Amino acid sequence: MVEWTDAERKAIIGLWGKIDVGEIGPQALSRLLIVYPWGQRYFKAFGDLSTNAAIMGNPKVAQHGKTVMGGLENAVKNLDNIKQTYAKLSAMHSEKLHVDPDNFRVLAECISLCVAAKFGPSVFTAEVQEAWQKFLSVVVSALGRQYH
Amino acid sequence: MQHFKGHFLLLLEARTGNSICQVLFSQHYTERDRTSATMLSNKEKDLIKEIWERLTPVAAEIGADALLRMFASYPGTKTYFSHLDISPNSSHLLSHGKKIVLAIAEGAQDISQLTVTLAPLQTLHAYQLRVDPRNFKLLSHSMLVSLACYLGDEFTPVAHAAMDKYLSAFAAVLAEKYR
Question: What Å distances lie between residue A11 and A14, A132, B39, B71, CA to CA?
């Protein structure tokens, strides 16, 4: 069971309230595909990923980024039960999608960097970053939990 | 010719003393120079060099910020600093942050020479400091967050990719003498 301090809860919920899922989601997924191109292996059905411009302009990437980011809403609403909340998604990523769970960690890093670039140091302080990254690492762990 | 500083050139000079071969090799290697295990294009190297040059005047602030973020998110890293005052804005934090950023900036001046530039730091980290090299990743990520915060829109996906590769190469070179 994950222990959250009041400060951490406040930071996570506060930051989440500022985030535009339709903006950060596509940015984060694009970055993953650009900075870690081997991640493209999971997106063969997405069409043109051959250049950075293609990735950043790809509507399927944008839609998927939004979907993934939007999924975090469930985690924010269920901070005390993230493992259970993500059990089905975890099984799906393992059994149907066959995604290497290390990619979840990498996407989480990309999300944090997009958030940092968007909000700057006065909002994304070291303390907020700590709470946010702890939150994302719990989600990442929950997503990898049902792999066998 | 100035782009090419690999050992192939020296080998060729020693064997043939043939300047034509030197030119052929330098043309072949001008486009992409191998740096440790990572591929950085000349464009990326220029971008990295330019960014770190610009950040040199605020080295202490950026470095302290990265360290603070690392300590907050990864408390295990604090164990290496029990001899310093690492509270926010402390003089230790600022001077140490500055040292780190200046070393990274210096490496960025000529990335193909990273092994040479970092030789003294390699020895320091391997034999004296003995920081577990897994922590280099943590500082690299924290540094990227500081850069993202500081550069905002300028921290484009291209800059992000280049920086990530450079910091990985830097960390890999730093750990070379460990074992």
Answer: 5, 7, 38, 18
Nearest to A106 by CA among A147, A137, A71, A84: A137
- Residue A52 and residue B149: Cβ atoms within 8 Å? no
Question: Could you tell me the domains of chain A?
Answer: 4-142 (1.10.490.10)
Q: What is the pLDDT of residue A142?
A: 96
| Count of domains forming chain B | 1
Distance CA B79, CA B112 (A): 33
**pLDDT digits 0-9 by tens, A40-94:** 988 999 999 999 999 999 999 999 999 999 999 999 999 999 999 999 999 999 8
In this structure, is residue B114 part of a structural domain? yes
Is B113 inside a domain boundary? yes
Q: What is the pTM of this model?
A: 0.81
Q: Which residues of A touch B145 (CB under 8 A)?
A: 112-113, 116, 124, 129
Share of chain B above pLDDT 90, in %: 69
Q: What does the alpha-carbon distance between residue B23 and residue A77 come to, in Å, rounded to a whole number?
A: 63
Nearest to B90 by CA among B119, B56, B67, B118: B67
Question: What percentage of chain A's residues is helix, strand, coil (to nearest 5)?
Answer: 80, 0, 20
Q: How many interface pairs between A and B have CB atoms less than 8 angstroms apart? A: 56
The helix/strand/coil state of A27 is: helix
**Alpha-carbon distance values, B110 to A117, A147, B104, B163 (Å):** 27, 44, 11, 14
Domain range spanning residue B47?
A: 42-178
Structure tokens at B90: 């402390």
In a domain, B58, yes or no: yes
Mean of the per-residue pLDDT values of chain B: 83
